[in-house]
Design goal:
Number of helices of chain B: 0
Largest sheet of chain B: 6 strands, mixed
Order of helices and strands of chain A: EEEEEEEEEEE
Number of strands of chain B: 11
Distance between the termini of chain A: 33 Å
Oligomer: heterodimer
Structural class of chain A: mainly beta
Radius of gyration of chain A: 13 Å
Helix content of chain B: under 10%
Structural class of chain B: mainly beta
Largest sheet of chain A: 7 strands, mixed
Radius of gyration of chain B: 13 Å
Largest interface: A-B, 26 and 24 residues
């Protein structure tokens, strides 16, 4: 399977705990994006990387959130001191820069439930 | 501030008929528009896209129409099939590379 993969698919945690999610993009894609989707809404942009550089962060990404892509391949998204409002589906997408149009390919998502 | 709007949360269409899903946007800087399809427990799957320099793009049963003056686009599916039942998201981008999504329309195609 050469698509975008995410791990874990589901995570249940208690309020105040830290969680970390992983995303493996399509191998030749140099851009990687994180989105968050809550019930009844479309995905909302959080941040994106081109290779290992984090180029943009949304105002939605509070100080408790941090994302890394250390070698320009996989990425991690960490949420510290989780809150119930963090419960959502976290989606990762990748794309190839230099292509005419920005078609992003999404992974299956990680569903986070904060109790 | 919802820059991309899908005002119909759901649509029900009979198999074989046309499905028309609508999307409106407010930001005139958007220059590229995409439609994604999402099944439960899966990530969105890219369906079809259109650049702002075009007014129509067709791919098999799927056609997207763009009316820039009205800031409106629509996705036509002809003929509709039961396997098309899913949530459809409209998305737009400008030169910042991030996608701005609408809230989605749930399409149900019944026999």
């Amino acid at each position: 399977d050469t698509g975008v993969s995410q791990d874990p698919r589901h995570k249940i945690t208690k309020r105040g705990q830290n969680v970390t999610f992983r995303c493996d993009p399509i191998s030749e894609h140099n851009r990687l994006y994180w989105y968050r989707q809550t019930l009844g809404q479309g995905p909302e942009f959080l941040t994106y990387f081109q290779n290992e550089a984090q180029l943009e962060k949304s105002r939605l990404l509070s100080d408790r959130f941090s994302a890394e892509r250390p070698k320009g391949s996989f990425s991690t998204l960490e949420i510290q001191r989780t809150e119930q409002g963090d419960s959502a589906m976290y989606l990762c997408a990748s794309s190839l820069s230099g292509v005419s149009y920005n078609e992003q390919f999404f992974g299956p998502g990680t569903r986070l439930t904060v109790l | 501030d919802q820059q991309v709007k899908q005002n119909s949360p759901s649509l029900s269409v009979q198999e074989g008929r046309i499905s028309i899903l609508n999307c409106d946007y407010t930001n005139s800087m958007f220059d590229y528009f995409l439609w994604y399809k999402k099944y439960p427990a899966e990530g969105p799957t890219f369906l079809i896209s259109i650049s702002s320099i075009k007014d129509k793009n067709e791919d098999g049963r799927f056609t997207v129409f763009l009316n820039k003056s009205a800031k409106h686009l629509s996705l036509h599916i002809v003929p509709s099939q039961p396997g098309d039942s899913a949530v459809y998201f409209c998305a737009a981008s400008d030169n910042t590379d991030k996608l701005i999504f609408g809230t989605g329309t749930r399409l149900q195609v019944f026999p």
